[in-house]
Amino acid sequence: MATLNRSPFLKRLFKNKGAFFGLILIIVSLLLALLCYFIAPDTSPNANRMIPEIGSKKPGFTTLLLRTKRDKTVAKTGFFKQLLNGAEESYQYVPVTAYTVVKDSIVFQKYVDEGITERRSIPLSLAGDPPVVKTKYYLGTDKFGRDILSRLLIGVRVSLSVGLIAVLISLTIGILLGAIAGYFKGWVDDVIMWFINVIWSIPTLLLVFAITLALGKGFWQVFIAVGLTMWVNVARLVRGQVLAVRELEYIEATRALGYSHTRAIFRHILPNILGPVMVIAASNFASAIVIEAGLSFLGVGVQPPQPSWGLMIKENYNFIITHNPMLALAPGIAIMLLVLAFNLLGNGLRDALNVRGKI
Length: 359
Hints:
Layout: H1 6-15, H2 17-39, E1 61-69, H3 79-85, E2 91-102, E3 105-113, E4 116-123, E5 127-137, H4 148-184, H5 186-201, H6 204-215, H7 219-227, H8 231-245, H9 249-256, H10 261-269, H11 274-298, H12 309-316, H13 326-352
Antiparallel strand pairs: 1-2, 1-5, 2-3, 3-4
Helix pairs in contact: 1-13, 2-3, 2-4, 2-13, 4-5, 4-7, 4-8, 4-11, 6-7, 7-11, 8-11, 9-10, 11-12, 11-13, 12-13
Transmembrane segments: 20-40, 160-184, 191-213, 219-238, 273-300, 320-346
Protein name: ABC transporter permease
Family: Belongs to the binding-protein-dependent transport system permease family.
């Protein structure tokens, strides 16, 4: 039985500059997805700190924010809880242009709009420590006054999660059906191929819409909907590979030795077709990210206030032709880079595994 020689494979993969660049981007994205709530300037759940007065500001916008204590007591957030969901805010934030401490009060000029301020004061005991912080929004703010950079970082987690779960679902269904069709042939192959062709004939986006509407809108529903539409390519590829491998001598030897069909498929056939499967998995990962972004843009994907790159484009695309195009361009560039990374990695895997002529 053929085996994969890892050392030459890794050498060929790392010599491919495009694949190496894509792998670095993917690793950085994974680290950002894991640590996003510790890296993002806004660590609130879903980076949903809304400050309407500073909505739709350009990249590099800097302001003073007065921190005032919330009415309710907020419990301290543990490490793992913050890692998963962020930390609940202990303060409310008010944009100010100037402030001064007078005895036991803070007198400040509240920022209302460009050139408009309002004089107010609060007891010093209701302010945080320090009471005022200087904040810079490196990518600007959206129309709700939320930090674009923070939502962009947390959106990495959504895109990678959709890609991972969609690929796992598509590989599970596609490998199972493709292997059964290719190994048993005959009427089993005819039935499975008929089903594959029916699914193949339905436009992907239309199928995703139907599944999403059946399952409902939401975070997990998007994963399942995308995954259930991407298994067809995998099944067709696996079927073709199994049809070729099942006729080789070592597979005939497993039949002569009386091994079960299950063992022949999972122990002797599938391990030898992993190369093409890995390549199509990388391609499906990139496709899943694009499909999720498209669904969120159309309003049937990830729902607010959870940050999704497609949803961010939807909320801010009208600014492309106005004064602040970066609000929509930033998530668009992020989608482009992540999809490019997986496509480059897929091309590198194809070359390193020498499966160019098999797909």
